[in-house]
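Convert to structure. Protein one:
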Amino acid sequence: QVQLVESGGGLVQPGGSLRLSCVASGSIASINGMNWFRQAPGKQRELVAAISSGGTTNYAESVKGRFTISRDNAKNTVYLQMNSLKSEDTAVYFCRAALTLTTQDVVRFYWGQGTQVTVSS
């Protein structure tokens, strides 16, 4: 019924940039908050950035000043612009969206499948 599909991951050198995208599709009535998480090998999944339906943003301390989250409500898409990348940013990045479906009257979280970001020289 609903799909969240991430793209834009890849291999980049330290100091480089990547832009991740996540598109939500399906029987969506509305989208509330949208988030980016990441999970490095052997570590717990952590919240990287969040954006509300009104555009308010929040960031993990480790990425403040380097990452920017944004969204295009007309396209049901959330972006993560990542600059000045470091080796410790290497992880699988997941998007999550709080959605209300046309067939339901509740807000639920939906996850994408993840996209790998590797920062290495």
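Protein two, convert as well:
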Amino acid sequence: QVQLVESGGGLVQPGGSLRLSCAASGSIFSTYNMGWYRQAPGKQREFVAIITSGGSTNYADSVKGRFTISRDNAKRTVWLQMNSLEPEDTAVYYCTGHFKVSFLRENDYWGQGTQVTVSS
């Protein structure tokens, strides 16, 4: 029904930057909140950032001031600009969104994840 495809992950040195993208496609009536989570090896998935359809944002304390989430509603795309990356940011990053997929039905969907590795 709804597909979320992430891109932009990779290997970066500490202090470097990466920009993740996530594009939604499929049978979508409306797009509501979109966000990013991450999961490091051996750890639970954790919240990173979220953005509402109106552009309001919220961030995990660990990324405030370093990461910026943005979106283009017309393109159904959300980005995560990550600056001043630290080894502790190494994780698989997942895009998620809340969508209205029919007149009466709304669901949350997840992307397949993209690996971000911060290492020298």
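The two ends are 40 Å apart (CA to CA). The first strand starts at residue 2 and ends at 7.
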